[in-house]
Design brief:
Distance between the termini: 20 Å
Zinc finger (RING-Gid-type): 53-94
CATH class of the largest domain: Alpha Beta
Protein name: GID complex catalytic subunit 2
CATH architecture of the largest domain: 2-Layer Sandwich
Keywords: Cytoplasm, Metal-binding, Zinc, Zinc-finger
Strand content: 5-15%
Strand order of the largest sheet: 2-1-5
Helix content: 25-40%
Structural class: alpha+beta
Subcellular location: Cytoplasm
Order of helices and strands: HEEHEEE
Number of helices: 2
CATH topology of the largest domain: Herpes Virus-1
Family: Belongs to the RMD5/GID2 family.
Radius of gyration: 20 Å
Number of domains: 2
Length: 108
């Protein structure tokens, strides 16, 4: 909680300035998917997301990315290939079955 509040207080002055600028242009910043600026944070507040596959217990990589199944569960690509029979698989966490083409690569 401390990190979130501190990062927010660091970002607030830039956000206020950006909001005022967008108001002058008669555009709302909420119409964009993301802000047009980055907030520089101290090294101690920068985190890199890590996903560990619940099946293989391995950290995902570029070569073995996280894959979201249609049911919403996420496993790494290698685990998905291991549990697949041909192009079909059954989710290791629920009764949902699917096709390999339905699994979607995700990035955290």
């Amino acid at each position: 909680m401390y990190v979130a509040v501190t990062a927010g207080s660091i970002a607030l002055p830039r956000l206020i300035k950006y909001t005022a600028y967008m108001r002058e242009k008669k555009t709302e910043w909420t119409t964009e998917n993301e802000l047009a600026f980055e907030t520089p944070l101290p090294e101690s507040m920068i985190y890199h997301p890590i996903f560990v596959c619940p099946v293989s217990k391995e950290q995902t990589t570029e070569q073995n990315p996280a894959m979201m199944l249609p049911c919403g569960h996420v496993v790494c690509r290698d685990s998905l290939h291991r549990i697949a029979k041909g192009s079909r698989y059954k989710c290791p966490y629920c009764p949902t079955e699917g096709h390999m083409k339905d699994a979607m690569r995700i990035t955290f």
